[in-house]
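Example 236.
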Amino acid sequence: MDSITKPVLCGFCGKEFDYTVYPMIHIPGDHKLKKKVLNKTLFFPTCPFCKEEIKLKPNCIYRNDSQKEVIIVTDSQDTDFETLLMTGDIAFNDVHSDEDVLAFIGGLYKRRVVRDVDSFREKILLSDNNYDDRIIELMKLSLSGILEKENCEPVYRIFLEETSGNQLEFTAIMGKRAPFEYVSVKAPSIVYTQYRDKYQNRLGKPEEDEYITTDQKWAAKSGLLKDEDAGFVIPL
Ligand SMILES: [Zn+2]
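Predicted structure in complex with zinc ion:
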């Protein structure tokens, strides 16, 4: 696996230190790297000077050939990656051969683009646990509705944090501006099953182009929850 060591500027104490990142995580093979993303030891360096934990803005391709999926995290805000993934005209440094490119297009691979490390980790977590990320986005949208009603504050971001046994644990970051409040919400995994049974047949194949950016904006735009009460079937 290729690695890049580069200086990271600590936003807490202002000092600089070297940190190693990996532009590509390729499964099978890079299981250790995947684990490091999941347990937040990759892309979350601790500053050796002030010991604060930093969240990096990484650029990385996660490619899983057994599950046939590609997840790209990029700090670029333009939509070039989405376009490239749709047309197959991709020129990322880590895509080595024409065969790679062909494999990504034509709906053979499920493709996702995300813009921060939390979303990247979440997508990999979902993939590992065989959850449909679109169904999870619908659940998050519904949960946000409840949280906003209860706390009278907007949900800034919401993520699936952990799945263990028969529970899904979400973290919602609430508030209009910093300092944000972190709220942890648990839902039984049967709720996922209920959502899946209700909505999956209204969605196309997960590898279609329209799902490349599957996030909260997508969930809202899908309109699937618009006739539902916020939080329907989600017990808290
Ligand atoms: Zn520091």
